[in-house]
Amino acid sequence: DQVSMLSDLNAVRAAAIILASGSPRRVDILNNVMRLQARVVPSTFEENLDKSHFTPHEYVQENARQKALEVYGRLSTDGSPPSLVIGADTVVVLNGRILEKPRNTEAARQMLSELSGRSHEVCTGVALLYAGEGAAHENVFVESTEVDFAPLSAALIEAYVATGEPMDKAGSYGIQGMGGSFVCGIRGCYQNVVGFPLHRFCVELDMARLRDHSCA
After folding, report:
1. CA 189 to CA 197: how far, in whole Å?
2. Non-local CB neighbours of 112 within 8 Å, separated by 6+ positions
3. Residues 98-157: pLDDT tens digits?
């Protein structure tokens, strides 16, 4: 749990955690904020799931799971699977519709226009894959945060898109950057909107399994 994690950070670090994501936001949360010394191994999973077959919550959970499974399998070929692989996927959901990273600047303008003056949901699916006998032991969950946007003028949207900040972010904005100036309300975990639900991760982390596979 959260208390045992903070009181035994050395055991967590010794377990050699793998983050199956190259997201700078997730790396910052795990390695700079929590100082977990996670090794970054970006997944090669193509994220080509058919959205029509999933609810938004199911979609992010399955994406996170597939990312983690790809990395877990790749690093287990020598018979020594990693202690823990973390996969994550974040999307913005507006009226039940999934908004991912914009394909181009026009898509970014469109997303921001739709989010303007409305509330939306930010969902992050997280997959925790622990080394097990044979197949990995999986714990997959989703965290949701509700975010309120102030009304955005066309000129403001144009100026924001011109900064380039929206282009690598789900929903075309970053709450930790200039996009945070559009947010007038939030209900739930702030770090979840950044890209990783830190509190929920600490609660879900299985310290007993990590200690069992610690390199210490």
Report:
1. 7
2. 152, 157, 160, 161, 166, 172, 173
3. 998 999 999 999 999 999 999 999 999 999 999 987 789 999 999 999 999 999 999 999
Q: Which residues contact 62 (CB under 8 A, 6 or more apart)?
A: 49, 54, 125
Catalytic residue among 8, 78, 89, 168: 89
Active site (annotated) includes residue 28: no
Tokens coding 149: 């946007």
Asked if 86 and 38 count as a contact pair (C-beta separation under 8 A), the reply is yes
Strand partners, 93: 98, 121
pLDDT at 89 over 90: yes
pTM (predicted TM-score): 0.92
